[in-house]
Amino acid sequence: MDILWTAFAFGLLGSAHCVGMCGPIAVALPGSRDFMRSYVTGRIFYNLGRTVTYMLLGGVLGVMGLGIWLAGYQQALSVITGSGIVLVTLVTWNRTWIPGGSVFSGIAGRFEHMMRPLMQHNSQPGMFLIGVLNGFLPCGLVYIALAAALASGSLFGGMAYMGLFGIGTLPVMFLMAVSPGLLSGNWHLRLQKAIPWLALLVGALLILRGLSLGIPFISPDLAGNGSCH
Q1: pTM attached to this predicted model
Q2: Domain boundaries defined on the chain
């Protein structure tokens, strides 16, 4: 997939959003700094759990996209997905990147309820499961990334895109979990302003990709070779 690089950039910039949405969970993770090795390892497992969930979701969307590709609608899928990302980004430009409504609030509440027993035990498997559940929490930013994973049209492409997205969020989320004081200030608010611009870029690249203009890396000839770039 020729826009994989945007996944890491989207995750890195998007981590500014994660500080506000998932930061409280990261800060509340169990463990004592008196046992630093276990403390740090647990937070690594937590972030790995989030990334694994993102990859699984990306794989599912990638397989769905594959079915559309095999049906001969790969160009339409890319254009429609890109247009959807652009539209959603413009509509929600100055709003929070989390869907509202009682349905999504109810889903988030259920996953948070499932995390509570795990929060009471400081174990690496427990930290990993907290991360796995955290990855399922409703998040508009993740949905944008999943849309790009859908357009990949393959299991590997979808998993790779979401894996790189998850890796991009790791630096900030790890620092948040280990030492929240290091991330004080309004830096994340400034960084968050770049998220819609990157989303627009991803959407535009998907549209160009679907138009199949024969431009290497930007708009490859999908119709001519019938392969996924």
Answers
A1: 0.82
A2: 4-27+40-219
